[in-house]
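User: Predict the structure for this protein chain, please.
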Amino acid sequence: MFVGKNIPIVYEDENFLVVNKPAGLLTIPAPGKSSSALTEMLHAACLREEVSWRPHPCHRLDGETSGLILFAKGKSKQKIVMELFRLRQVHKTYIAFVQGGLQKKEGVFTRSLEGQPARTLYSVIEQREAGGALFSVVEVNPETGRKNQIRLHFKAASHPLVGETRFAFRKDFPVSVRRLMLHAARLEFCDPWTGETREFKAELPADMQVFLDKSIIV
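Assistant: Here is the predicted structure, written as structure tokens:
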């Protein structure tokens, strides 16, 4: 399937497809807003190609977040995949750039969100400096799927994501960029139709890689 030159299909079979969403694009349309969303674009591609199925998102990414999203081909298949998410059998890995240097190189956040348990594992890949200010490149594995979980957990730890504007004031932190530095880099799960282990990866988008290349390791 061809969606658009900036929206690559990472994988597709008869049951689902994995899309690499660019930053700045919503997963589903926002209520009361006319801006396009990835789901709408996939629907339009299905109509153009005259296929019988329709794509249904099995999870979401914030509009500011780039990376992998899993879509099922049809409502009944969506229910099957979403059960994997409910049972925490889909393993998600994000790459985040966060403000400052974390004291622990790896750890876990367990702060409840909206009255629900939430658990986020992290591991520092490296520390870098941009414009004389320190930031950390972190691998993040959310074990639960609360709304804005990664962003809220790092904010609560006083290390908000670089580019964060919703949960922190950009002017209060030394490293500033135009968009949120968060990328859904990897998905892994057992295919419910074949029993095979599926693993999908998406490289850092160009803007995050350019920002990284302009910084120095410390």
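The two ends are 43 Å apart (CA to CA).
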